[in-house]
Design goal:
This protein is α+β, with helices and mostly antiparallel strands and about 600 residues long. The chain folds into 3 domains: about 260 residues, Up-down Bundle (Rhopdopsin 7-helix transmembrane proteins), CATH 1.20.1070; about 90 residues; about 180 residues, Heat Shock Protein 90, CATH 3.30.565.10. The chain contains 18 helices and 9 strands. Helix 2 packs antiparallel against helix 10 and helix 10 packs antiparallel against helix 11. The longest helix has about 100 residues. The N and C termini lie far apart (about 125 Å).
């Protein structure tokens, strides 16, 4: 029939009047509950890293807009408004389906969807949006049936709804299978709610469109409250969204809205009064319930926090105890290993000392007759030698003396390091010892045309507790070295008493009253970078090696350990190459009571 706006509007309005109760009750409460739930979730969980709260708000807002558009379609008198809302209502439904899929993925996977999936969905939605204002969507108003005539885009709409629903089912089943028992319970409850909502909402709309039985659509909207109830249960039971109180608050608000929505269709005054009383009681008891639950939650949280702290402390104590036990066991193992290693090292050290001692004794035997026979040859006991023969025998004698010197040093080191050397301390006059050594070595100095003198101190030196024989060996070694490495000039030996205040040199110097013996020469000097290595076993200076190739590198090492055993210190000072050298030896005025063996080995 021809289009008549007034007439057909009246006919359409009459049709709506017959179905207004179910229209109001299916649309208004569910839309408001969904929107409020979306707002609650968003504002109560704004600090979450994932966008799940934003997606849920978008989904609930899209559902709210769809219900609003659907009510406009049902109740509008203006066909142009009806045509416009009919053109966009399917867009809101597709947004609900796609956002439900997105929300389900993020909620269960606990991460954002991959970009390729979002790009695919956005592309499919963009095609739908582009075709909305065309005749492929809606073209004319069917005044006979009070509805818009839909174009081919409706089939693309059916495709999208089916695609998103099947995609959601596939994802939910796959996810449920992959989860463990406790997580699987959450996924199953969530899946039931989502499927009930989407199947009833989208499915009812598609069936209603195909069968043109629009009453089916009204009942399909009740899938949203089912989904909301299951979501609230998940929030309360499993702390979804990490929201506190929102489950109870949402239930109270939903109850109030459902009761309040009855005012849209009740007719009698008595029913209105009863409904108002029910609404007041529900509001009052709901407020009391929310406060009680809030208090219970705080108490529970306090108990859980206290219990958690206790658990954490117990865990830390257990971990600490285990670590202590482990460390104790490790220390015991290390201690046992060290004991074994010390025993082995002691055996090796004893074996080394025994070997060195034996080898040294064996090496001492041949040089003795060589020295005797070479001396006899030089003295002419076997006939007069010519100059070349005498020079050769002298070289043999020098080499033999060096061998004897090396063996003596090696024996001294072996005895001292093994602890077999015994030190006998008694009162000695260090000045007398210095004078005797100088007298004995004066002839050697004259052979090199250099002077050797001992400067007697103005103040007589006191007697000190030392091992005279060992200190005599030390001083002989130092003075002899000074003579060897002084080509011209000479060597001066001086002694003096030092008290604590005078000894301000630092770590090298003894900090207690002592006697300082200084052996100064005008010889080749020592570079500063070589001085620290001269007291190390078998170590020799570069220039020293050049001028005296027969040195052993043991003399100064023996000097150091003997000096330390007597409680003293020894070091070298030199301004540099060709600027002379000072050997400084300090011995305490009073000897400490200590283990000589330990002192000898420790240095």
């Amino acid at each position: 029939m021809d289009f008549n706006l007034v007439t057909k509007s009246a006919v359409c309005y009459s049709y709506v009047q017959q179905n207004s109760v179910i229209l109001y009750y299916s649309h208004i409460p569910t839309a408001i509950i969904a929107l409020l739930m979306g707002l609650f979730v968003y504002f109560k969980s704004k600090d979450t890293e994932l966008p799940v709260n934003k997606i849920f708000l978008f989904m609930s807002s899209s559902f709210f807009l769809w219900t609003a558009a659907d009510l406009v379609i049902w109740f509008s008198y203006d066909t142009s408004i009806t045509m416009f809302t009919w053109a966009v209502v399917n867009l809101f439904e597709v947004l609900v389906s796609s956002s439900t899929l997105y929300f389900s993925y993020v909620f269960l996977e606990k991460k954002d969807a991959p970009f390729k999936y979002k790009f695919l969905v956005l592309t499919l939605l963009a095609i739908f949006v582009v075709l909305l204002p065309t005749s492929y969507n809606v073209n004319i108003f069917d005044s006979l049936n009070c509805e818009a005539t839909q174009g081919l885009l409706v089939y693309y709409f059916y495709f999208l709804e089916s695609l998103f629903f099947v995609w959601l089912l596939f994802f939910l089943v796959k996810k449920i299978i992959s989860l463990k028992f406790e997580e699987r319970k959450i996924a199953i409850l969530f899946s039931v709610g989502v499927i009930c909502f989407l199947a009833s909402f989208s499915g009812a709309n598609v069936i209603a469109s195909l069968t043109e039985n629009w009453k089916i659509l009204q009942y399909g909207l009740f899938g949203m409250p089912i989904f909301i109830c299951l979501l609230v249960y998940l929030i309360i039971k499993f702390k979804a969204f990490e929201i506190k109180l929102i489950g109870v608050q949402a239930l109270v608000f939903a109850l109030i809205i459902l009761i309040g929505s009855q005012f849209t269709f009740i007719k009698t005054d008595i029913n209105k009064i009863l409904t108002a009383i029910t609404l007041l009681l529900a509001t009052t008891f709901g407020w009391i319930l929310v406060r009680s639950v809030k208090k219970a939650i705080k108490q529970k949280e306090a108990l859980e926090m206290a219990y958690g702290e206790i658990e954490n402390r117990n865990k830390k104590l257990n971990i600490a105890n285990k670590e202590n036990i482990h460390q104790k066991n490790q220390l015991q193992k290390l201690s046992n290993n060290l004991i074994k290693a010390n025993i082995e090292l002691k055996k090796l050290d004893e074996a080394k000392s025994d070997f060195v001692s034996m080898a040294s004794h064996q090496l001492r035997t041949p040089p003795t007759p060589i020295k005797g026979y070479s001396s006899m040859l030089l003295e002419g006991a076997y006939g007069k030698l010519n100059s070349e023969q005498a020079r050769a025998v002298e070289n043999i004698n020098k080499a033999n003396n060096q061998q004897i010197e090396f063996v003596e040093d090696l024996l001294s080191v072996s005895r001292i390091e093994s602890g077999s050397t015994k030190f006998e301390f008694k009162k000695q006059q260090i000045g007398t010892i210095c004078q005797e050594i100088v007298d004995n070595l004066t002839f050697k100095a004259k052979e090199k045309n250099i002077f050797l003198k001992y400067e007697i101190p103005a103040t007589p030196l006191p007697e000190i507790d030392i091992d005279g024989m060992k200190i005599r060996e030390v001083l002989s070694n130092l003075i002899d070295n000074a003579i060897k490495y002084t080509p011209k000039g000479g060597v001066t030996v001086s002694t003096k008493i030092c008290i604590k205040k005078i000894c301000a040199r630092g770590a090298k110097c003894l900090k207690k009253p002592h006697i300082r013996i200084t052996i100064s020469d005008t010889g080749i000097g020592i570079p500063a970078n070589e001085i620290p290595y001269l007291f190390i076993k078998f170590s020799r200076g570069k220039d020293i090696s050049r001028l005296n190739t027969g040195g052993t590198g043991l003399g100064l090492y023996v000097v150091k350990i003997i000096t330390a055993a007597n409680g003293g210190k020894v070091w070298i000072e030199s301004p540099g190459a060709n600027k002379g050298t000072k050997f400084i030896l300090e011995l305490p005025l009073e000897q400490e009571k200590k283990s000589v063996k330990g002192a000898g080995k420790g240095n």
